[in-house]
Amino acid sequence: MGSRAARYAGVAACCALLGVTGCASDSNDSGRSTASGSTVVPTQAVVPATTDGPTTGRTESTPPTSPPPTSSAPAPCGNGQVVVDATIMSPGMGHRGVRLNFSAAHDSRSCTLTGYPGVDTGAGGPLLHAERTPRGYMGGLPAGEDNPPTIVLDGTHGAQAVVEGVAFDSEGNQCATYTDLRVTAPNTTDTVTVSARIDSCHLQIHPVTAPR
Prior knowledge:
This protein is mainly beta. The protein is built from 1 helix and 12 strands. The chain has one helix at 3-18; strands at 32-33, 39-40, 82-88, 95-104, 111-114, 118-121, 131-132, 150-153, 159-166, 177-184, 191-199, 203-205. The strands form 4 sheets. Strands 3-4-9-12-7 form a 5-stranded mixed β-sheet, with no helix packed on it. It has a 3-stranded antiparallel β-sheet with strand order 6-10-11, with no helix packed on it. Strands 1-2 form a two-stranded antiparallel sheet. A hairpin with a 6-residue loop joins strand 3 (82-88) and strand 4 (95-104). Residues 11-41 have low confidence and may be disordered.
């Protein structure tokens, strides 16, 4: 028997003895024989198939969107929404003052005031235009605060602003005494005349603030 036939005969005998069907018959076989006669088959990684297209039958969930926030702040006061009156302040060291009081009209919705009222003198002397200043001897914004606040006017809340001056000029002469003032609320064109007595040669008006 030739060497090749003898080699195959030996392999067949080995398989019959061990009862193993996976015996290697040649060095070129895909399997590798172990010492115990079992065959180790090389493994390959299995990669799951993917698809770039949409998946049929799957529902994409979309996060709910919140509605845009709505502003609850009242709008600025307009013409016809503001009522103005005046209170004489106690004098001090030659200074005179009038407190202007702003309230919402009876049939008006809530609204806001921000900034300086317009103030001119009425009867009693030459026309004076009040100068806008943050604060003075008689009132105004706290020290260090120059930005006027926004004040809400409604049925229970109002605003105020201080008009002030000095009763004597630089030479010590008595200034004219005015008996009324013409007042325009901030950001409106409504000018009303209020009864207010103040003697001064120069007037200042401070921003509206919450009542104190």
